[in-house]
Amino acid sequence: MSTELIWPTQVTEWDPSPELKPVGNVVLVVIDLHTQGPDTINAAGLATRQDRNERAAELVAAFRAKSAPVVFVHEVHNSTLIDFGRELDNDGQPYAVEGAAGTEIFSGLAPTDDEYTIIKRRHSAFFGTELDIVLRGYLAETIILVGDRTDAAIHYTAVDAHQHDYRIRVISDLVIGSDEDLHDAALRAIKYLQRDALVSTDAVTNWLDTLPPLQS
Questions:
Q1: What span, in angstroms and rounded, lies between the C-alpha atoms of 213 and 7?
Q2: Is 19 part of a structural domain of the chain?
Q3: What average pLDDT does the structure give for the chain?
Q4: 56-78 in b/e burial notation, b at 16+ Cβ within 10 A?
Q5: What is the structure's pLDDT at 14?
């Protein structure tokens, strides 16, 4: 047996897959879709944040129409700022403070009574939250991520999902980064973890079309 050390292949192409390739139960995780945040990013092919939020709301509606589970995650901080910790070591500017303008959930994405809303204090939706418990309650094996920001919450949530042995699927046209370079770098880093991690909205809607309709 060879003892030669072989490093994983570097990611040089990060176009989204046209196929979802899900394994087991699938849960859509919607992260930090507040009414304010990064507005534009050419790499995502989106004109504005408003456009992305509206398209995300359409996807949530499509999941609900097939009775497929959706979990909402929002980063919110207390007005005392004591729960920020080292989160302010980048530019020192508080964000997502409860009661502040722009921290409310985008109006088209209000959770229903039977959907979970999880509050987080760090970039990762797993860190210090009950997300893993909720996903295991749904018997999830594959999680689909949409939201803000590609280079922060989406990236770190994807890493923790990988460490928890979930299959990751990030809808690359429904996430927005701090800028184009950071957006692309985060997508490359996520694909480095799992080769099928990046998908398009069409890949997800095509998969949803294969599910039976909601029974009344």
A1: 45
A2: no
A3: 87
A4: bbebbebbbeeebbbbbbbbbbe
A5: 82
